[in-house]
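Field log, afternoon session.

UNIT: design team B
ACTIVITY: writing a sequence onto a fixed backbone
BACKBONE:
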């Protein structure tokens, strides 16, 4: 991996400089817009055409039969099912603590104010297909939605010639997905946003996907809500002179193997750790099954920065705002307050990032590309809406009449002022 040493100011400028995000690709934007328009106009017929074109599969009925889902669940190896159930337990116990409730305020005489918290009616989960299967993403998405009280959760996933991965079907049944549809890409996002005869319209679309899925989610936002526009995976690690280079390298590669555009990053106070980690990455790459993908990410997106002290390391990472942030230093909990921007934080040498991907309980659907500065991990709050309400007696309104009409007329809205005065 490239090792960067310079003045802190120059170092900061180098590592925080971001490439234009793929989701700003004008050619893909235009293609996705055309697909969405086609699905809106032609519904299931358009979905059938795109499924044949992009997935080489011909389908008349997109819904996966319940018998197929049941068979996958019944035949799931016990060790895998046990692992999924343990993950389900941990994710549930974590997200149950996120639940928020409405309130009613009657502190002022004659005035009642309040807020209702209601679940969304229906949400759609996009699960990628292809070379990798992501049952963990189903758990991370559906469990907080269920805790929030969402009544209907449907799932879309690209069709496969040999059928949907049984682990994906098992996870979907385990968490109570209501229906699974074999449809992927931008066309699946369009179907969820606008509805077709076969696929129901939802209120929110969540889940990762390729550039076409990301751009489609961006284009339908407003018609429906979305979780976020996720970019390639990122891991940032802060390490001191006592960290283990082999563990650091393994964690960097755990994210580099996701995507050629994944971003593995190490910021350390020790040149010796930097050099040893770079060598360990090279050594471990030789036996990694997804070597070609990880190598590209390491060579083109990764870096190791050497800084003077941990304060600089945290400042640098706060500028980057990584999706995943590992703190591999002595007494890591004492540095928690220095972290301002990150999706999910892993404290100490034993909190390896895959712990969060699968089992610990915190969500693994996280903001990327610096958006951790203002976005948060997926959680229960993402599946609820809030409705405000207010009630006034005439006496209570009279006390505030002049203030309201004054503000209305300052803004040039005479009708607003007269609406209040009409009560008197």
């Amino acid at each position: 991996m490239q090792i960067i040493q310079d003045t802190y100011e120059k170092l900061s400028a180098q590592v925080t400089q971001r490439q234009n995000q793929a989701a700003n690709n004008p050619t893909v934007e235009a293609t996705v817009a055309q697909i969405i328009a086609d699905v809106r106009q032609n519904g299931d017929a358009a979905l059938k055409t795109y499924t044949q074109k992009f997935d080489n599969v011909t389908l008349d009925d997109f819904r996966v039969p319940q018998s197929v889902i049941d068979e996958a669940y019944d035949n799931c190896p016990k060790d895998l099912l046990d692992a999924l159930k343990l993950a389900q337990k941990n994710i549930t116990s974590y997200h149950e603590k996120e639940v928020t409730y409405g309130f009613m305020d009657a502190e002022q005489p004659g005035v009642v104010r309040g807020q209702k918290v209601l679940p969304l009616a229906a949400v759609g989960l996009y699960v990628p297909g292809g070379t990798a299967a992501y049952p963990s993403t189903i758990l991370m998405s559906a469990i907080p939605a269920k805790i929030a009280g969402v009544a209907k959760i449907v799932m879309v996933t690209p069709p496969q010639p040999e059928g949907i991965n049984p682990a994906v079907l098992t996870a979907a049944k385990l968490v109570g997905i209501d229906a699974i549809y074999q449809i992927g890409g931008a066309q699946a996002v369009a179907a969820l946003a606008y509805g077709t005869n076969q696929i129901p319209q939802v209120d929110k679309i969540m889940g990762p996907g390729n550039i076409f899925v990301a751009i489609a989610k961006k284009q339908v936002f407003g018609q429906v809500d979305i979780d976020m526009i996720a970019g390639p995976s990122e891991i940032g690690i802060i390490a001191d002179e006592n960290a283990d280079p082999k563990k650091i390298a393994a964690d960097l590669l755990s994210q580099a193997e996701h995507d050629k555009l994944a971003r593995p990053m190490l910021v350390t106070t020790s040149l010796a750790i930097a050099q040893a980690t770079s060598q360990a990455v090279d050594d471990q790459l030789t036996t990694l099954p997804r070597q070609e993908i990880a190598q590209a990410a390491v060579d083109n997106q990764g870096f190791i920065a050497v800084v003077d002290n941990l304060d600089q390391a945290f400042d640098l990472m706060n500028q980057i705002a990584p999706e995943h942030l590992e703190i591999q230093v002595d007494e890591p909990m004492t540095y928690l307050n220095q972290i301002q921007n990150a999706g999910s934080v892993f404290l100490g040498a034993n909190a390896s990032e895959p712990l969060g991907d699968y089992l610990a309980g915190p969500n693994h659907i996280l903001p990327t590309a610096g958006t951790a500065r203002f976005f948060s991990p997926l959680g229960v709050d993402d599946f609820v809406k809030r409705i405000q309400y207010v009630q006034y007696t005439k006496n209570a309104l009279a006390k505030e009449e002049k203030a309201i009409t004054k503000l209305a007329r300052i803004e040039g809205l005479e009708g607003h002022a007269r609406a209040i005065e009409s009560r008197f």
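LOG NOTE: The two ends are 75 Å apart (CA to CA).
NEXT ACTIVITY: expression trials, pending approval
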